[in-house]
Amino acid sequence: MISFQGITKVYPKGVEALRGVDLEISDGEFLFLVGPSGAGKTTLLKFLIREDLPSSGAIIFKDEDIVGLADHLVPQLRRQIGMVFQDFKLLEKRTVFENVAFALEVLGRNDNDIAQMVPFILQKVGLSEKLDFYPRQLSSGEQQRVAIARALIHEPEVLLADEPTGNLDYENSWQIINLLKQINEWGTTVIMATHDRTIVDSMKKRVVTLERGLIVKDE
Amino acid sequence: MPFLITFSRIIKSTLQHLTRSPYHTLAAVMVMTLTFFATSLFVLVAFGSNAILKYFENKPQVTAFFKDQTSEDYILQLKGQLEQTGQATTVKYISQNEALSLYKKQNSQDPELLEFVTADILPASLEVSAVKLEYLSDLANTLAADSRVEKVIYQKDVVESLQSWALRIRVAGFALIGFLALISVLIVLVIISMNIATFGKEIEVMRLVGATSWYVRWPFILDGAIYGFLSATISTVLLVILLPRLSQYASDLIRGIEIMPQGPIFLIQIWGGTVAAAVLLGVLGSLMAVRKHLRV
């Protein structure tokens, strides 16, 4: 379903972030991208949502090379791929409901749809009691759940998680990992970048290790 | 109706920008109001100078004032000569008594000016209207050559002088308005850039969840349009308040000519024109900011 083919990324002054990465990811897979900081994990994820472009190579998503995708089609790509981040990227002046609804509003969904879909997805991530809370009134783990709910509201085929437990304590980290596992069981492909070895080792999922822009292990 | 839903959300987003950054809005509107109020005043000045010019252009006249003791017979004989040249449409004799009654009529609101004025101190005159503006110099020369004529007022000089002043006023006005318009565009550019920075996180989230680039851009472009609309409307309201006073001042200054435009049609035209120009400037400033700072 997703295929990275000969991906390189060279920044100005010749700094190489990725050096010929080939990677195939199947539908419904749960994949960890691991490696030290600067290994190229986040760069790979950014390519998938066309936040950045590789210097060479192709990225095939649903039989189409998204590297050459026209700019006006990028929003449609992003509606099929949800993404969550270490810093949650929640809007502080909006409630939990409004943060998730925001993702539907920008796509022109009507208020009735929003009123039905948002409580449904928030119930799935265990936040049905906190619809009217503001992000500052939530724990870090709850904030990450809101971000996941927002990423899932379009029912994306792929969920990208860039260090989603990076700002969380042990207990909250495991709650988020279990939630991602559950989302994967619903049929969504999950790609998670992390350098938390404990989580990776205990999950028994496919692990791709990146070092200095190269895949050094795929197990 | 997805289009209407999207449109209403863009408007909602625009209004959020305006209310969440009230000082940005205030600064932009005040600077643009200054520009468009100055523009409205310039339009009035241009209208006034045009009205004065037209008044004189449509009345190609030479007026000759006679020395005291010049007999009426002498003046009427000269009048006949002028009529025979074929260059004059009308030659009107105004006796000293008629001059006094004209003076009284023009200054009826100002009794102080009427005191001590008698027919003796006002000269008799001939008002000669030329068939064409070009004949004015011939008629003026004929009158000036007459020994009984004290003074000739020759409106070609007046018209030329007025034309020259009107041109200077227009050049200065356009330069001033151009300068203020440039300042307005730059201020809108800076303020929209600040709005983009203020709403940076919202923009980032919009992009991530798949908003189209125009969905992200439109509220910022509409910010500029609304700054323009508000400033043009405020400047027109200021004009509505000031126009009666300006009209009074102008009619005191130059009597007999309708210098200031009147009526609601003129104000609607001014409002429409300034709104169109202000919205255009606002959108221009916004587009420049969006192009520079909002890469979607």
Automatic annotation (TrEMBL), chain A:
Which cell locations does it reside in?
Answer: Cell membrane
Which biological process annotations from GO are given for this protein? Answer: cell division
InterPro entries assigned: AAA+_ATPase (IPR003593), ABC_transporter-like_ATP-bd (IPR003439), ABC_transporter-like_CS (IPR017871), ABC_transpr_LolD-like (IPR015854), Cell_div_FtsE (IPR005286), P-loop_NTPase (IPR027417)
Where in this chain does the record put each ABC transporter domain? 2-219
Per its record, what are the GO molecular function terms?
ATP binding; ATP hydrolysis activity; transmembrane transporter activity
Q: Which Pfam families match?
A: ABC_tran
Give the main localization category.
Answer: membrane
Give the similarity note: Belongs to the ABC transporter superfamily.
Q: Can you state the subunit structure given in the record?
A: Homodimer. Forms a membrane-associated complex with FtsX.
Return the protein name. Answer: Cell division ATP-binding protein FtsE
**Organism this protein belongs to:** candidate division CPR1 bacterium GW2011_GWA2_42_17
What taxonomic classification does the UniProt entry list for its organism? Answer: Bacteria, candidate division CPR1
UniProtKB/TrEMBL annotation, chain B:
One Gene Ontology term of the biological-process aspect is: cell division
Task: Please report the stretch or stretches of sequence annotated as the FtsX extracellular domain.
Answer: 61-152
Q: Which residues cross the membrane?
A: 23-47, 171-200, 220-244, 265-290
Answer whether the UniProt record assigns the keyword Cytoplasm to this protein: no
Q: Tell me where in this chain the ABC3 transporter permease C-terminal domain is found.
A: 175-292
| Membrane topology of this protein | Multi-pass membrane protein
**Mind listing the UniProt keywords for this protein, alphabetically?**
Cell cycle, Cell division, Cell membrane, Membrane, Transmembrane, Transmembrane helix
Q: InterPro entries recorded for this chain?
A: ABC3_permease_C (IPR003838), FtsX (IPR004513), FtsX_ECD (IPR040690)
Subcellular location(s) per record = Cell membrane
Under the cellular component aspect of Gene Ontology, which terms does the record hold?
A: plasma membrane
Question: What's the protein called, per UniProt?
Answer: Cell division protein FtsX
Q: What is the lineage of its organism?
A: Bacteria, candidate division CPR1
